[in-house]
Amino acid sequence: xxxxxxxxxxxxxxxxxxxxxxxxxxxxxxxxxxxxxxxxxxxxxxxxxxxxxxxxxxxxxxxxxxxxxxxxxxxxxxxxxxxxxxxxxxxxxxxxxxxxxxxxxxxxxxxxxxxxxxxxxxxxxxxxxxxxxxxxxxxxxxxxxxxx
Amino acid sequence: xxxxxxxxxxxxxxxxxxxxxxxxxxxxxxxxxxxxxxxxxxxxxxxxxxxxxxxxxxxxxxxxxxxxxxxxxxxxxxxxxxxxxxxxxxxxxxxxxxxxxxxxxxxxxxxxxxxxxxxxxxxxxxxxxxxxxxxxxxxxxxxxxxxxxxxxxxxxxxxxxxxxxxxxxxxxxxxxxxxxxxxxxxxxxxxxxxxxxxxxxxxxxxxxxxxxxxxxxxxxxxxxxxxxxxxxxxxxxxxxxxxxxxxxxxxxxxxxxxxxxxxxxxxxxxxxxxxxxxxxxxxxxxxxxxxxxxxxxxxxxxxxxxxxxxxxxxxxxxxxxxxxxxxxxxxxxxxxxxxxxxxxxxxxxxxxxxxxxxxxxxxxxxxxxxxxxxxxxxxxxxxxxxxxxxxxxxxxxxxxxxxxxxxxxxxxxxxxxxxxxxxxxxxxxxxxxxxxxxxxxxxxxxxxxxxxxxxxxxxxxxxxxxxxxxxxxxxxxxxxxxxxxxxxxxxxxxxxxxxxxxxxxxxxxxxxxxxxxxxxxxxxxxxxxxxxxxxxxxxxxxxxxxxxxxxxxxxxxxxxxxxxxxxxxxxxxxxxxxxxxxxxxxxxxxxxxxxxxxxxxxxxxxxxxxxxxxxxxxxxxxxxxxxxxxxxx
Lengths: 148, 633
What we know:
Oligomer: heterodimer
Number of helices of chain B: 26
Structural class of chain B: alpha/beta
CATH superfamily of the largest domain in chain B: NADH-ubiquinone oxidoreductase 51kDa subunit
Low-confidence stretches of chain B: none
CATH class of the largest domain in chain A: Alpha Beta
Number of strands of chain A: 4
CATH superfamily of the largest domain in chain A: Glutaredoxin
Helix content of chain B: 40-55%
Largest interface: A-B, 48 and 60 residues
Number of strands of chain B: 19
């Protein structure tokens, strides 16, 4: 059953990410030891899949759906607005660690497009002008962040 | 509790249930979840407790009903009264009026937009009445987390039939005869696939359910896994019996947490009931099933990549042959089918291949579930017989285009598919007609586009997707998709060159022929079909710096018509970058240098005023020149 041991890799990475919020260097080393493969191989798998992050995530997670249905209903305009408001490009975390902005390919709730998910809560048919309120509602520190 | 007689269990389940009980069923699909349906469920439970109705009224969270546009959906059974857009505030009225007094709450009924008539029963709503929901229909009746609900609707009877009345060869013969083709995209004959794998002699064989539904805008597989997971499991056990597999995997996208949860619960329950594991239903057949959560890579939907991913590697595709049926997971023969394909299997066994093959067209049998999304009135999942026309799906089931706009195209097959123009609305849909039109069935995404959608931008969108998702193994795909994307981006910015049209075509051909897997081989399809059917839009962008759909940001301006503006300050207040100036009751002006083209001004300008317009091409230039002149003065 030796070749099947490696089959646990993605499962273990999911576990590590759930526990720590990201994949730390220590987690990579521990998993490599456990599966008797090199750290380089684990690292290669981590960077291949979008679901794993090597960086710690922000306190609040803002996810924008970029599926086709959301795209034709104006998701790119929402992305512009999110990036402008948070002052970071998609995929990054604000320097104060408050927000992580990410885009996903489709969350499959197309009737509500464009969709912004803030900390697991779905906001449907979002308009560019509503973006700022959505974020301020989650964390009042946002305004301070903007002033800085 | 290990069971040996499924028929008896069904009787027991049905007899144990109070038939006089009223059931409030609430759709619990991801779409309705996003609308907040769980709060509605809680409100019903509380209200029923408060009114002391617990013994006579039950609440059931079911799988996706498909009519996502109108969620949260509530159906009162057994009467089948259909309420839509139900909020927490509506709950007391439904309990008091409908559940207790057996009256209808008029304002929650669905109204036919054409006839304005209120419709009481689910099956009479045009969205449903034109469908043929043989796979998807049970979703609304059963609680996916309770195996007894599935058993009550004849669940696992096909499995019992197969195990005790049919040989493996007979099963394969039946599936072959039904004409079932894989619902994952390529449309390979399922029975034939099974036969090839069965013929391989090997000590171990594996079975995989591909639930890595990656096409953006397509979510039918997820809804089946979430809403009727046992139909997929039953199909897989039957497949395992036919092929001789002893172990199986369901590879689910990590983006589908509810599907992962429901399928995991379903497997546990099936194991408890003796439907998975050692000697299933007391027979000599044993089969074990695991859930494997993906990690976010579109390419892992390709079967050889998917297997690499289960093995704990990067999801790189490999050369075929050897096909997975010969050398698959860990080197052993492996059969892979998609979720919807597996869900078709129990139905074919129960009703027979002859019954099944009567549905559909000559080359494509049965039904197909499409995810009808985009600029359409009735967004949702629709199950229709193969051979139905696009027009019927879009206008009769889908209720036409949003805001009475003009239909432009429908995109099928996700990033591997193409755009089909209005001239082809009467095309009967099956595997072969779509391929002939330059698109493909894919897993069943159907994205409707209207006059406001720019087809060059759509092509750019898909190439952005594929260049990001290309695994990088084949150079033509890795670099070619990137170049296609960059050329398309340039065109949407008004920097296209006349030679780009030929460049795109040549490059598309190279990527198609020089790539190993389906991702690269089909990635140029969105470019090729838009070039074929919407060449004029490319030409407008390149030669006249004009976006006919008024969508490409770099080619349009927002402009406040001085003769229409009433100076209400609304747009000024809503502009996120302070690009609008003006006083109350005076004409407002947009500073084109500052404007980021977010469209907020157009959005907030009152419908009675409609002072904000978008312009492109010549007209845009005229306005800019005029403003320049005025500033110089």
